[in-house]
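Chapter review: from sequence to fold.
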Amino acid sequence: MKKAVNILVILALFGFLLAGCGSKSNESASNEPTGNTEEAGNKTATGALEPENELIVAGNGATVEQLMKDEIFKLFNEKYPDVKLTYVSGVSTEIVAKVKAQKASPQIDVTIIEGGEQEAGRKEGLWETLTVEDIPNMSKVAEDLAVKENSGVAVNFTPMGISYNAALVSEKGLPVPTSWNDLAKPELKGKISLTEISSNFGRSTTIMLAYANGGSETNMDPGFEKLKTIASYMPTFAKTSAQLQQNLQNKTAAYTAWTMARSIVQKDAGVELEFVIPEEGANLVSNVATIVKGAKHPNAATLFVDFLLTDEVQKLYGEKLYYNPATDVELSAEVAELLDFDRSKVVPFDLEVVGNSTSEWIDRFNREIAPEVGK
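The token string follows.
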């Protein structure tokens, strides 16, 4: 009898344990995502983002637009063939103005714009905050290219400086520039082409003229004073980089101020340009990718920004457009040598000051500088 009771007790305990395990197993199963919930609706079964079927990207035109459409878009579509890609070209100031005007109903998902304009957009609250969790390749971007509040991520950069037509300079016996102040030498009269201060090239030049004469972005008086002299040497200020390019190509100008990347591209196209970083130094022009706040295609935008930071695309920026990659990617020896420059000469602008002051500088340019043109 005692033996039978012991057997019943053991059987009861065994049954209780089985019931507990079954209950726990059912509880775990009920807590696992099914892939059909609203929260998981934007993800695949593996947890990866599922892109929407469209993406609208805005950025610079000319060679940048060509590379984007001809190569980067095609590579992205190899990974995500169902995403229809549209490119909206324009200068960075125009793109930021467009995003601001569309704030209530964004028509652009991703912008790739210059750092100063990106900062102006940040002040307006136009960009989403980016995280390494969503965009893992952000972790590969150099720390000195960090964007304030992670409101974007640098995808490439290039230094500003002075370009000159070596053949014309040699033929006419003109000076080889070594200083920003050389742009104000009387010998350069009628041989300079600069953009207006509304353009990043014109703005950076004016700030560096300030630095070269004891000022800075917080004290622009010396820069504007020197720019008055330069304006008197010119028939007009160019409104776009395309205009600068044309002036150099048709030899109506021998000197300009723009980036190393632009200079090398034009040299490749047959224009005998040489590029120098003046002795006072120069700023870096970074191109920053942002995701527009409230974008209609956030998943596709996130995947695209991360894609821009892959080795494949970073190499394209270096090899095709001569932008320095934002990540430590290996370039051909020839291109790596072309893109090498003395980083100790970089003058780091306070982009918050630049963003806050640009509209005031444009007004001042129109009042004080534009009337001096051609005098």
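Two observations follow directly from the output. The CA atoms of residues 4 and 35 lie 50 Å apart. The first strand starts at residue 54 and ends at 59.
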